[in-house]
Design goal:
- This protein is of the alpha+beta class.
- Helix content is about 40%, strand content about 10%.
- It folds into 2 domains: about 5-110, Phosphorylase Kinase, domain 1; about 130-350, Aminoglycoside phosphotransferase (APH), C-terminal lobe (Aminoglycoside 3'-phosphotransferase, Chain: A, domain 2), CATH 3.90.1200.
- The chain is built from 10 helices and 9 strands.
- The chain starts with 11 loop residues before the first helix and ends with a helix.
Amino acid sequence: MTDDPVALGAPPSVVGPWLAEQTGDDRWASCAVSLISGGKSNLTYLVKAGDGELILRRPPTGHVLPTAHDMLRESRIIGQLGPADFPVPGLAAVEPTGALLGQPFYVMERVRGHIVRDAFPAGYADTEADHALVAERLVDTLAALHAIDYDRVGLSDFGRPDGYLARQVRRWTQQSAASVDEPQPAVEALAASLAAALPATSANAIVHGDYRLDNCVLDPDQTGRIAAVLDWEMSTLGDPLADLGVTLVYWQQRADEDELTMALSRVIPAITRLPGFPDRTAVAERYARVSGRNLDRLPFYVAFGYFKLAVVIQGIVARSKAGAMGGQDFRSMGDGVDLLIERGRQCLADNTIG
């Protein structure tokens, strides 16, 4: 078995025997591992043996920031939400020590379906009514997550919801400082404005942290159904409106033709610009109807979403420069940081969701 250079972060000669032992299935001992293109934070690999397929998730291969890329938290939450009938992949195995690959990692079921960014596959969701249905199911699934009793599903110690927003602003301010080599006055100014404008917590719930359409798998046979929600590395207990704010940051609408949209075409999917998809205001209104939550302070959460995405991109650019992204080059994404910060400043100053 020869290790593919592209899969050096998860060499099959190491992963295969371990996975065979963990699952009791000897076919995995001689597996193939390939990097799935597109991951900009943690690295995601397809593991194949015969007709079997699994997904391996691990942190980047270089230096990782404190509290970032936490595979044990991610594996824990999908392991707890699955039995609660929330759509997540099944958990296959967890390596918690970092002894095998230098970092903890886990392996999960590969959920068949469509992950869409800029277009639907031919023959799937062809109509405007289909597009509207996809949007509705995406919002409804988010509301369903926020309605889960985290004590009942064994996640009462998964985070500290009290003081969540203040900690989030501090955390992402610190992450920004750790990702760049020079002062970022615009980033620091928005962080200070957010810290000064913290709303009262709307509620406490399980928070995904990066909820958007291309972090979901769409059922290939039932249009609009969310077969699985992926990428739980930022999940915790906190204010659910922070999730909605991030979703709206990623939600392009047909009128968006500005510099920010162009600069972040590799980050913000364009699919929600298709006819039939609602605009950001309608998305927020549906969430309010389904969840029963008050959205009067939603502009703060959207502004925080822009701030958070800007810092995430700073980290992606830093890891790309360091060669820790499995050969993927995302350095050009840095052009969008200032634009994101300005958009966040505008949302906060003008009390708008954009």
